[in-house]
Amino acid sequence: MMGKDSAEIIASDGVLLGNIREITDSFNYQRMLNPKIKQPVGHIALSFKPEDKPKLTNEFMAEIALEYMDLMGIKDTQFILVRHNNTDNPHCHLVYNRIGYDSKVISSQGDYKRNEIATKKLKDKYGLTYADDKSKTKVEKLRSAEQIKYDIHNAVKDALRHSKTWKQFNDHLAEQGIKLEFVKRSRDIKSVNDIQGIRFTKDGLTFKASQISRDFSFAKLNAKLSWNTSETKYSLNAKKQRQEPPAHNPPQTNLIESNGFGLLSSFGESSPEDQILYDELLRKRNKKKRKGLGL
User: Fold this and answer.
1) Is the four-CA dihedral 92, 285, 104, 33 of positive or negative sign?
2) What would the pLDDT profile of 247-286 be if each residue is shown by its tens digit?
3) What is the pLDDT of residues 112-155, one digit of tens each?
4) Coil, strand, or helix at residue 287?
5) In the β-sheet with 8-13, what is the strand arrangement from edge to edge?
6) pTM score
7) How do strand 41-47 and strand 256-258 relate by DSSP bridges?
8) Cα dihedral sign for 93, 98, 100, 106?
9) Number of H helices, E strands in the chain
10) Strands 41-47, 91-97: pairing kind
């Protein structure tokens, strides 16, 4: 994390900063206050628009990040805030101990909602630039998976304009090469209450609705689309659902809980740079584990 020339710690608390080992040991010692927690380290990437770069001094970015932590309920615990300057988007990485100084666990439940409220409040308070509407983004510059997300996003918006029922909605998506799938809450889907969510598949990649937009959750779409049992029976086939490929999600480590929140994106996705901050912490932990120690 600190091996890159562009990385610099702009704020911290309760952590020895001499080298990677000292940082790792600091987190390790505090983790022992509550050793049962499997994901003791939290990670959040805060990203800003290029337009805000001139005013984002280290001090100002740290001030925003500390206020963000307070709004997210990340208090009274170890943390380091590392700024990277290797992209057009100014951004910093917050790595914090989920085990507080009082040995209590900092909960991550409801983080998405709190993040949405916190980022909007900070943008308005400090005059930060909002992200552009997804339908206006130049998708030709995006990576393949990200471009597919935008394709799905725009297709869903278009399908909603021309659909009154789930059957019509599905047909419009199918015409654009997108498959709609219901995620079941129980073993079999017998009623709407048995549906937990939805996901979309295009070009072999599957994404949960929340990965495309929070406006496309099952509850919100169901409020706009009516049901016709005979028309939507195709989507309630549990056997067919079991044959679907798993969602295209990045692997999760059992050490670090990474939310990937940002002030730039409402997608909640993270870029490859989001791993930079804690990769060395994780490697250090694995090395110690082989020696009989554990983080």
Assistant:
1) negative
2) 444 333 334 455 544 443 322 333 333 343 445 554 544 4
3) 788 889 999 999 999 998 876 555 554 444 456 778 888 899 99
4) helix
5) 8-13, 79-84, 91-97, 41-47, 256-258
6) 0.50
7) parallel
8) positive
9) 10, 8
10) antiparallel
Q: Which amino acid is at 225?
A: L
3-state helix, strand, coil in the chain (%, to 5): 45, 15, 40
Structure tokens at 227: 């049901």
Distance in angstroms (rounded) separating the CA atoms of residues 258 and 101: 21
Dihedral sign, CA of 61, 114, 41, 281?
Answer: negative
Bridge partners of residue 42, in order along the sequence: 96, 257
Torsion of CA 59, 61, 66, 68, to 10 degrees: 160
Residue 276: which region, alpha, beta or left (left: phi > 0; alpha: psi -120 to 50)?
alpha
Query: Around Cβ 53, how many Cβ atoms within 10 Å?
Result: 13
Show the tokens assigned to 173: 């998506």
Cα separation, 106 vs 95, whole angstroms: 13
Report the alpha-carbon distance of residue 207 to residue 237 in Å, rounded. Answer: 19
